[in-house]
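Practice record 12: protein with magnesium ion.
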Amino acid sequence: MIEVQHLSKRYGRVTAVDDISFKVERGEILGFLGPNGAGKTTTMRILTGYMPATEGKAIVAGFDVFEQPIEAKRRTGYLPETPPLYPDTSVIEYLGFVARIKGVPAAERKQRIQQVMERTRIADMANRLCGKLSKGYRQRVGLAQAIIHNPDVLILDEPTAGLDPKQIIETRELIKELAGNHTIILSTHILPEVSQTCQRVVIINKGHVVAIDTPDNLTARLRGSETMYVQVDSSGADASAALGRVPGVTRVAESERKDHHVSYEIDSERGRDVRRDLARTIVNSGWGLLELRPMRMSLEDIFLSLTTDETQTPAAAGDAPPPGTVAATDGAES
Ligand SMILES: Nc1ncnc2c1ncn2[C@@H]1O[C@H](COP(=O)(O)OP(=O)(O)O)[C@@H](O)[C@H]1O
Ligand SMILES: [Mg+2]
């Protein structure tokens, strides 16, 4: 449904997007994840025909966005970073205006506006001036204008940015509902966003694609070995030697000790489940098994490991913060 091939964009000497390629299948929600300055907005502006690429090709709903821009735009809904609302126009007037310029036939406009207002839950604000809407409602009116002509493809640039935690959850639900009828690319610099909303993630950093995969596969792929967290009450005895003798275990590291409660991080050969043998060893030694669980790499760890080796100097990206700050913005609702 969307195909991006070797796309690059240079602003003078700044390369904002550098040879990126990816595909989005029909009905899919693709997360476009990267720190500020990574090139997300630039890519989305190119896909929506707002500006040309320096190199490369983009196909949306079967139409080349450079060669057949009108056909491509007709099938695309775009929510820019700041929704383009007219402050002195009521919501319903504004949607009427957008429906007209997007070519919704006059006879269908009224019904279509009603439908999208219900869909995005803004019907109660129909007569409110756009300039008087809260941030959450502005964003929903932005979504309403993006879907008014029932496009195949939706391009949403940071749709939850600046919303409070309740609005973020509502917006996520709304996007998931829309996914049935539309193919969606949404950008975000917030990690939990993609695992909660998207089936697949493109991670970009400094204009380069650094990974494309499902959130689950990304997590699994970056786990070099399996690591278990084990907490034992060994009444003062050193359990590490016994745990190290369990078949398949490659490393035992004590991570914490409080009185008799000792925690270990235990690595094992990939694909080998050592949990039963660990538990048996502990119990047969007469110790207490207090906790035993796999340690999963969080999406945050993955993101850092994918983006840090290229980011030795945090200031190098100009306005981009060091990748570590990317994850810190969320947390309120996850
Ligand atoms: N109009 C522009 N002129 C010059 N540089 C720009 C312009 N727009 C964006 N950039 C630069 O391109 C890079 C990517 O920006 P952008 O696509 O907005 O990233 P993101 O949306 O991921 O934060 C940044 O380094 C930014 O400073
Ligand atoms: Mg942006």
